[in-house]
């Protein structure tokens, strides 16, 4: 997305399934206060990415830390980092296997407060049932979030027809479907 980076300074951001940490660290370089998360085995890689980018993060007045978060587990250690919920959740390429759908939805619902947003980017691969998982994920997410697909505002150079970007805003009064489980 062609972001106006002026809204990122002081924005409290959690990235889920950070992997190498590219999205979260980029947000930190634009001034955001970021908690990068992933499975425990990936945390050392996240710490290394943060360390390698200390200079640009500090030049941008941002912050970045890495904390273990397995989807579906207790999110309190993440909330404890600031003593308040995040302003924004980032999620890049995290919908790709069936078993993770319910825990991922649980984590998003637990972490995201009403009226705050999740910025989701997702590659659609023509392998297995991934497209079906993504459809199922978005359908269940839409029970508590208003979702729009970002189409026009994508960078001409970096956009790809396989990569879809969504902005999900948590409704103030979730529907009574919150507790329903996906059947995939
Ligand atoms: C396809 S990678 C995407 C990495 C990065 N976000 C990117 O766009 O390059 C998916 C990431 O989700 C993480 N992941 C998978 N299952 C997870 C789970 N149950 N809990 C937390 N993270 C998980 C993986 O470790 C991996 O880093």
UniProtKB/TrEMBL annotation:
One Pfam family of this chain: Methyltransf_16
Keyword Transferase: yes
Single GO term (MF): methyltransferase activity
GO biological process: methylation
Keywords: Methyltransferase, Transferase
Residues spanning the membrane: none
Superkingdom of origin: Eukaryota
PANTHER family referenced in this protein's UniProt entry, alphabetically: HEPATOCELLULAR CARCINOMA-ASSOCIATED ANTIGEN, PROTEIN N-LYSINE METHYLTRANSFERASE METTL21D
This protein's name: Methyltransferase
Protein species of origin: Nesidiocoris tenuis
